[in-house]
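Q: Sequence in, structure out?
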Amino acid sequence: MANKNEKNLKKTSEKKEKQRDVALDKFDVDVTATSSKKSSKTPQKKKKNPFKRFFEFIIPQPGDTKGEIARKVLLLLAICILIGTLVFLIRQLVGMSNTGKESDKLASSAGVPNSSINYIEPDRLTNPDAFIPTTAGTEEPEYIDLTPVVNYPLNVDFDYLRGINPDTRAWIQISGTLLNHAVVQRKGDFQYYVDHNFEGEYEEFSSEVFSGPNNAWDGTDDNIILYGHNLSSGYGFAYVNHYVPYDASIEPLAFYKVHPTILFQQDGGQSETYKIFAGIVVNTEEKYGEVFDYTSKTKFNSAEEFNDYIIQVMDRSWFYTDVDLEYGDKLLTLSTCYWPLGRDKETRFVLLARKVRPGESEYVDTSVAQRNYGAKLWDYYYQLIGGQWYGSNWDTSKLKGYGG
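A: Exactly. Output:
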């Protein structure tokens, strides 16, 4: 009987112990400390160092299956690509920032200080619907100030510039923008300034404006053709692309209307003003269709040759202006990268201007400028975007001696 009572007492004790363990467990209390001797000796699992767990997750380990190894190799490759991309972007941003500072410093030293501090491009207003709400709860048309910038004649210290770089040929400026650069040309190596700065140092993202091989710079050029990078920092020829019509705005040609002219001074010459008359988008790869040749047109030997070239330019222009042209005019051409079909397609935006004639006013009536939605393009563009060319629709009377 006593033996039976002892058994009952033991069961009751064990039952109470289990109930206690369950209750404590609900409060997240370690119950092993008050458990039986056997359970108190049970080894606890040691947590791994998080860094060690991470490296084991991405680095192949002994005993990994082939699938695990393949996964880890691909993951490591993706991480390497990501790191490489970040390093590239950081280098690009730092490089362009340094480039901008050097460009501003050079301009100031050459007597051409930058006038674009705190400048905001009028055609980049964040107003895609072209209407703005008023306090009365109604909507009014978007307002854009189209007052043209004021040009101040250039007075460049070319002696100073040549003392640093004998390749100096001219200076170019679009008032109120960051386009305020020396123009250089290296004989025999016309790609040199693609990745070298004014001081001759290697610079992956150079902001230099340079001339191609076809310009003589001896007073005989009818068309000076310049090239520059389209840099996100705004330097180089980034502002050339602002002349691409901005169709989201009520004023697609606002940037042109505010900046209708270019200032240009050649070494040994006076400050000259050029009136912008066209902007074209061109293909550079024959596999995508026609490649319009604008890079070799530095001289025009006859009125017929000049007229033929202007006709081809105007057929391709994305806008029309009030600027007229005639054989004998001196042209200025600015070329930079533009990617309407993607960055893997080598396309260019090319801006064209003509020099103000002796005795002619620098004034441009920008109010009559028009967007051209029927510009001549190339096969692949039409395949991708749609549309076709329906023929010339510009005012041929603007080309003196040809039409109208």
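The longest helix spans residues 66-109.
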